[in-house]
């Protein structure tokens, strides 16, 4: 059973998403909160597997709430944070990914997409909408150069692991990467796990951020 916590300052959003998720046989809505501060408290109390987190809220925004939830959970049960946003380009979403969020989804996404998103992040995968991610990365990388320190760390990867990271950053699934590199899907999973371990990253979302910050990939390539 996937335990879900809803954090959004709009009551209608919480009620609507809550009703949808409660109808799923493998999900349990353990609580909801009207702002980030209450969300941090609720996460400590309920130990959710997935937190659906709005970005722009009173008292504490979703970025700081995400950081606090994941920092407090270090060494304990760490929930996955799925960022919900009304806008297809939200300056805070990229920062939320850097803070440890496992992905993001537009609030106007179809119901089936929301349900699938919860299952995807609960399973430990990243959920990154390709079109929104591309615009966010373009916006971010347009502001500065690659981080040379992260570039050096990439030297610890094998050529094959570097190839896999590059394709992960382009948004390809394990199956698509396997087809691209002519590898078994299980082999790709092994490479992804090794990349995350070597770079001290928690999941694919952070791998995407790292790849762009290191300059391994750039918008459009």
TrEMBL record:
Top-level taxon of the source organism: Bacteria
SUPFAM superfamilies linked to this entry: C-terminal effector domain of the bipartite response regulators, CheY-like
Stretches assigned to the Response regulatory domain: 3-122
GO molecular function: DNA binding
Alphabetized PROSITE patterns for the sequence: HTH_LUXR_1, HTH_LUXR_2, RESPONSE_REGULATORY
Gene Ontology terms: biological process: phosphorelay signal transduction system; regulation of DNA-templated transcription
SMART domains assigned to the protein according to its UniProt record, in alphabetical order: HTH_LUXR, REC
HTH luxR-type domain residues: 150-215
InterPro entries per UniProt: CheY-like_superfamily, NreC/VraR/RcsB-like_REC, Sig_transdc_resp-reg_C-effctor, Sig_transdc_resp-reg_receiver, Tscrpt_reg_LuxR_C, WalR-like
Residues with PTM 4-aspartylphosphate: 54
Keywords annotated in UniProt: DNA-binding, Phosphoprotein, Transcription, Transcription regulation
Protein name (Swiss-Prot/TrEMBL): DNA-binding NarL/FixJ family response regulator
